[in-house]
Amino acid sequence: MCGRFTLAKDAKALKQAFPEVPVDARMRPRYNIAPTQPVSAWLADPGIRLEVFSWGLVPPWARDPAFGAKCINARAETLSEKASFKVPYRRKRCLIPADGWYEWMRGNGRGKQPVRFRREDQAPFVFAGLWEEWHDRDGGMILSCAIITTRANALVRRVHPRMPAVLREEDLPAWMDPETRLSDLDRMLEPIAADGFACDRVSPEVNRVGVEGPNLIRPWVPSAQPVQETFGF
Fold first, then answer.
1. Number of domains in the chain
2. Is 133 a catalytic residue?
3. Domain range for residue 106?
4. Is there a catalytic annotation at residue 145?
5. Does the pTM exceed 0.85?
């Protein structure tokens, strides 16, 4: 599962990392992105463009946009079977930029401890995503998206059995190409290697939706217990 992530890079840093795609100069760093909040992502329709989506995919047939709260993640193994995801998997794939994501582990009497996974070099990367549009009776439209998840790699497995599907740089063009075969798309969703990734225990303030700020992604050590003893890695 991926229920919270970060994009703690400004527009300039994103443009340097992804020079081939458009970046909105108004984008600001975000440290605690939560379901139903706005998410920036690239789609191909037909050219590559940046759009703002609501995180939680709302299929066209949903009676209520609140349906999206149940569809923040899409399991890679069942994309071609689930009614909410099988059409966008074929036709509406997107790239969701990020530079980290959170998972939680239980400490010794301290509640759930947030852990942030990131690249060792702190560079941004891209989640594999799906998008949809939903129309109400008055002509209004909601653009929404979901993050695809896959089996955890060796690093993430210490905390959680699943992780976001992080796309390899060489796969980005094919992920956005509507002619790419499903078998090739399935291959792209295999867990990315743990090499080059790291994780940090971070402030419990992450647990509060709506809290923002760079302090959330700084490494955090509980004062009463050694890290190794408390969390085991």
1. 1
2. no
3. 5-231
4. no
5. yes
